[in-house]
Amino acid sequence: MLARCPLWLLHAFGALAGRLSYALSPSYRQRFQAQVRQAGLSEAEARPAIAQAGRMIAELPWLWQRRSALGDLVRWQGAELIEADLAAHRGMVLLTPHMGCFEVTARAFAERFGQHTPVTVLFRPARKAWMRALMDGARERPGLATAPASLAGVRQMLRALRQGQAVGLLPDQVPPEGLGVWAPFFGRPAYTMTLAAKLAMQSGAPLVLIWGERLPGGRGYVIHVERGPALPPEATPEAAATLINQAMEGLIRQAPDQYLWGYHRYKSPRQLGAGGGEVL
Length: 280
Prior knowledge:
Layout: H1 7-24, H2 26-38, H3 43-46, H4 48-58, H5 60-65, E1 74-77, H6 79-87, E2 92-95, H7 102-113, E3 119-123, H8 129-139, E4 144-148, H9 151-162, E5 166-169, E6 180-185, E7 188-193, H10 195-203, E8 207-214, E9 221-227, H11 237-254
Parallel strand pairs: 1-9, 2-5, 2-8, 3-4, 3-5
Antiparallel strand pairs: 6-7, 8-9
Helix pairs in contact: 1-4, 9-10
C-alpha cells in the first residue's frame, strides 16, 4: 500500500515521523546533537536532517517495490567521471556514506551504466527470513548484483573489479571487531572498515564518491559524483581509513542537512559472528 503512494506523500509522512522520533527518543536526540557538535556544525545546519531521516525510511517501500525505471526522477552531477573510468576498463569502488538516499545510488548507476558495466553492492542480509526475501527481491535488478557481507561476498566483489566492473559499499558502516581500525572521523576515533581500501588497493580500481541528494517535494534525486582519494601503495590500514574518513567528512559538510546524524558512528564494534564468515 505504501509503495503505491506518491513520493511526495511518503516524504511528507516521513518528515513527520522523523520529527516525532526525535522528540520522543531522548537517546536518539542526544546522539544526534552530540555528533553534530563533534562535527563542529551548528544546530541550524543539521536540524533539517531530522525530517530527512524520516523521509529515508518512508521512501523505502516506494523504492523497493517500484519496478519501472526511475527515469526523470534522477539527475546526475559528475557522471563524466564514471564514464571516464568505465572507458578505461579498470573498474571502480563506489563509496556512499549514510547520507541522502543511499538506496537510490546503486539503482541509478545500474539504470544508466549497468547494461555495459554491472555494479555489485555489498549488504548485510536481514535476520528475519521474510525481510531477507523482500530485500533480495527488491535489490536484485538488471545491471545490479548484491554480495553478502561474507568472505564469499568479498571474493565476488574482487572478481567484479578485476573484470572492470563497479562495486559499491557504505564505508562509514561500523564493522565487526577485528575487521576495522580506529581512525579519526570529525576529530574523534571511530571504528572504520578496512574493506573499502583493500578492494581498491588489491584491484587497482579508483575510489569514487557517490551519494543521492533527496530533493524537496518528492521531486526525485540528484546523484552527485566526485573523485575519491588516491591511496598510496604503502599506506597502512589506519592511514587509508583516515583518508577515506576525510573524504566522507567532505561530502557531509557539503550537505549536513542530509546526513544521518542519528547513526551510531562511534559505537564499539560488535563481536564477529560465531561462524567466522561475516566481514561487515
